[in-house]
Input
Amino acid sequence: MDSVKIGLIGFGTIGASVVRILQKNGDIIGQRLGASLDLVKIADLDITTDRGVTVAPEMLTTRAGDVLEDPAIDVVIELIGGYEPARSFVLQAISRKKSVVTANKALLARHGDEILSEAERQGVAIRFEAAVGGAIPIIRSIKEAFVANRIHAIEGIVNGTANYILSKMTDDHVDFQDALKEAQAKGFAEADPTFDIEGIDSAHKIAVLTRLAYGTPVRFEDIYVQGITSITREDIRCAQEFGFRIKLLAISKFDGTSIDLRVHPAMLPEDKPIANVNGVFNAILVRDDLMEENLLVGHGAGGLPTGSAVVADVVDIARDIRSGSRGRVPPQAFPVASLQNIPLKKIEQIEAEYFLRFLVLDKPGVLSRISGILGQFGISIESMIQRRRDSEGKGVPLVMMTHLSREKQVQAALEEIDRLDFVCEPTVLIRVEK
Amino acid sequence: MDSVKIGLIGFGTIGASVVRILQKNGDIIGQRLGASLDLVKIADLDITTDRGVTVAPEMLTTRAGDVLEDPAIDVVIELIGGYEPARSFVLQAISRKKSVVTANKALLARHGDEILSEAERQGVAIRFEAAVGGAIPIIRSIKEAFVANRIHAIEGIVNGTANYILSKMTDDHVDFQDALKEAQAKGFAEADPTFDIEGIDSAHKIAVLTRLAYGTPVRFEDIYVQGITSITREDIRCAQEFGFRIKLLAISKFDGTSIDLRVHPAMLPEDKPIANVNGVFNAILVRDDLMEENLLVGHGAGGLPTGSAVVADVVDIARDIRSGSRGRVPPQAFPVASLQNIPLKKIEQIEAEYFLRFLVLDKPGVLSRISGILGQFGISIESMIQRRRDSEGKGVPLVMMTHLSREKQVQAALEEIDRLDFVCEPTVLIRVEK
Output
């Protein structure tokens, strides 16, 4: 049987899972492909730690160059993550006409233009299904299954750590910090969870999807990003009373002129299927002009799910190689020549319904002042909950849902309200997505 | 710009939608493909009915041969449905080395062996994403995204008509016949709804998925199929009381030895995401050794969703043609040489939990007789509801959920129970899927 030769750079959790999958399922992969995938070299700075898989010692190297410079290797898998040296390694592989598989969303979000365009120029395949949504086949769906469709919107729960924390806070009525600690204890959150809980990882992923869906470069810095660290138990409880769930949502909507691209906690009606995707699961909803909506749900992280997406990408490339196909699908879904710079909407330009949680002293006239200011800014209230009376003088929560309002007006109103002397702390704003 | 030439056989709802999509989204398809899809001929016995799309009169023909024999046509789309003449047309196209796109699940379920194997032998691409789940990219996911995975199970709500009827019965507490009438009035059910409500269409679809998932031929006649016509409002209400939803489920489970392949109404715990897929939506859950589970939800029918899957298949083939690729992905996910005959389990061999609804006269000793017989057959009861007393002498419903039991034993017990003189009608059995 023919074989396709693979080199792996990065022998961490996902790298080790890729090795395990190739060993465990090599038979069925070989049957489906009609060839074997032959892993010939693994590079990592640390080649002494036990990764839980057995590999021939001569396969291991601490020099990425040993993979990149090996003329026998057809496909390079990059799994070291981060910007550098990942960027250099990937560009080097491309310049040597090696195909690339990567799971590196940070790299693609920041350097997608350079890397993906270079791959197209060199006629080299680059695939990155594992970069978004783990085992969820969202990238190939956008590039291939929805190729006839004009995509209008993508909404995703694309960070398993944040979703685990919010689910935990919802189910067990615990605070953010306790849920985070448990996520860390269970291995669902890293020691430094910043990228996950601050929404940066989600922003990387929606940047990648946006590029593919609409055929536009995306400046990562221009994405509005808000994490989940300020969400409280109280917010979640109030959301439930109004019939909503709070999820960290990555949103990308295209109205034909500009793209509304943002990551923030959002309130979702509890009867929406995506609102019921809990724990470390991810979910991505695609809306377009032909199929209304398509929802994909699966494990968004973890070695084996993510590794299975990596290996599927390798099989895709092996199929290209074996069938003599080159440049079959453009790396960015659209050929570089068809990309267009579509402007992003600023967050002030969006319209939404809003959940507002004020913490106010329990005094006469408070409600009328707040609702008066909201009214001045053209914001009308759809419903309201006032909590129990203030026993400790620390303020009482006052919670409102607005009708459709302009973000700019809401921000201006909150600035004025938060200056009032009976308002105890900055007002919490959570956007509603229906 | 290059073009790929297409001929269409079958100008019904989906055919007209394909034409509309090519017209409406030709620009974006052209950008993504780097070539145009050029529909040159449409064959249908009826070329006079207004299909709501404008086509040049000279494109229309009543002779399928005008499409099949046209040497300029690269890709033939078959959308006439049914077994013949669809089978002959598809085989003719293949023998003339034309690639084929079809949405015909009945054809693939019955003649999949012949047609798909012939396509592989001739090195011709045949794609059929639209045959299962409309716009849901399940077929390419199984063939490409999950290529490294050992699939264990597929569970699907794959018939929108049946799902609409059951959802309607659940939400509006109406009887089957009323829900069916409404589905017909809304165009969600055909005048003759047999295939949909009797589970035959679902069986066609799960037969196709089973073939691809495990690499086995499937004898359609051997699939256990039970429709939804005997489901009553009362069953649905009881299911709800136990925390379940009733769905028409297509199930295909592979334990490494044999396949448990069946279509029947099933009770699903209401907190399972698939239990909350309602109306005409379809949902397909795939379980395997690497990614735990992946759920895809979308429009399972309708002209535009299904048409978008057809056009995406055409684009796939156009990409093969333009990139010089041939035989890139085997039509059956596995090459013919790797197919294995995996036996199907008989329904008597399965184990499940069961919902049983007895209709009994309200007499002393009834419950002890029934539970006694169940006990003799090794069936233990997990919970029970006895309804209001019998006012009209027509019997009272007695509802039980069993623990995990053998189907064979359950069938035998029910046979004995249904012979008792206080049992008013044949006992309803609904399998539980957890």
In short: Chain B touches chain A through 64 residues (CB under 8 Å). Chain B has three domains: 3-133+303-332, 139-299, 348-432. Residues 303-323 of chain B form the longest helix (21 residues). The mean pLDDT of chain B is 95.
